Amino acid sequence: MAGYGAFSLAVVAASERNPQRSTRQIPLARSAVTGQRIGGALIEVASDIAYRRLGIVNVAFLGTPGAGDRGWVLIDAGLPGSARAIAAAAAHRFGPTARPAAIILTHGHFDHVGALKALAEKWEAPIYAHPLEHPYLVGLRSYPEADPGVGGGLMSALSPLYPRHPIEVTDRLFPLPPDGTIPGAPGWQWLHTPGHTPGHVALWRASDRTLLSGDAIITTRQESAASVTTQTPELHGPPAYFTPDWQAAEHSIRLLAGLRPAHILSGHGRAVSGPALLPALDDLAGLDLQSLFSPVFNPKGLPAFVEDMLQTVT
Ligand SMILES: [Zn+2]
Ligand SMILES: [Zn+2]
């Protein structure tokens, strides 16, 4: 980059930080982060819930250690190229030959289904998703174009590059049971939480008030590469660049806040719990996300993601 360009960017980073255009939502103290690092690159948040972070996204494992063949369930399937890492984590936790009873999808975005086909075939496992998500999983429909203008971060700016074409897992795909149960995961129920995608679901276990929120509520500012890198905890609506229906998204947030969860494990960011969670959830439910995510530009006309980029590389 020419000296002038670099200088301009430095000026932006140093002097033009404007809280008005911040799309940070509800900050959480680091003390809200929960979970214990165990082997297999896993973080355990309950005796029968663990997750693994794969770059920018999480996958969750439901089931007790050593559960054995068909004794556990995988939630979502990470980025393309992560099949081996997911399988290794599963083998570590449940046994070297332990296949899941099912793979459950919160939704079909590329960062949640990247290893799906490979894993479903390897494990001969059924895949369950909400019927409204099926067109994106049977090769029929692409997700709407990403909106790079929202959120003001590098992840948003890059979002037109993210794959949005459908995958094709027709042979193994089933609708989630209409009674709200989750195959292979007794005690859990699924809840339709559209907005981010039409067939997005969250998973809820009332006995310990644990919420697997998918992308309906996330715990980092996913639009920002800096926040994604540091995993700074905050309660946050769905990743903005990929959310076409804000009215539904806000309704889904209110639905999930109304459950009064004690623990949240989301698709992006760290698992969180503790006394700060419910007030923060109420604050999030009160936000007008749609207006927060109008395109943001700094006064010099340079896109806000430049600042984010600088934060990431410095
Ligand atoms: Zn998503
Ligand atoms: Zn996601």
From TrEMBL:
The record's annotation in Gene3D superfamilies points to: Ribonuclease Z/Hydroxyacylglutathione hydrolase-like
For this chain, one GO molecular function annotation is: hydrolase activity
So which domain of life are we looking at?
Answer: Bacteria
Q: Where does the Metallo-beta-lactamase domain start and stop, copy by copy?
A: 56-268
Give the keywords, sorted. Answer: Hydrolase, Plasmid
Q: Which InterPro entries match?
A: Metallo-B-lactamas (IPR001279), NDM-1-like (IPR050855), RibonucZ/Hydroxyglut_hydro (IPR036866)
* SMART domains reported in the protein's UniProt record: Lactamase_B
The record's annotation in SUPFAM superfamilies points to: Metallo-hydrolase/oxidoreductase
Q: What is this protein called?
A: MBL fold metallo-hydrolase
Tell me what organism the protein belongs to: Paragemmobacter aquarius
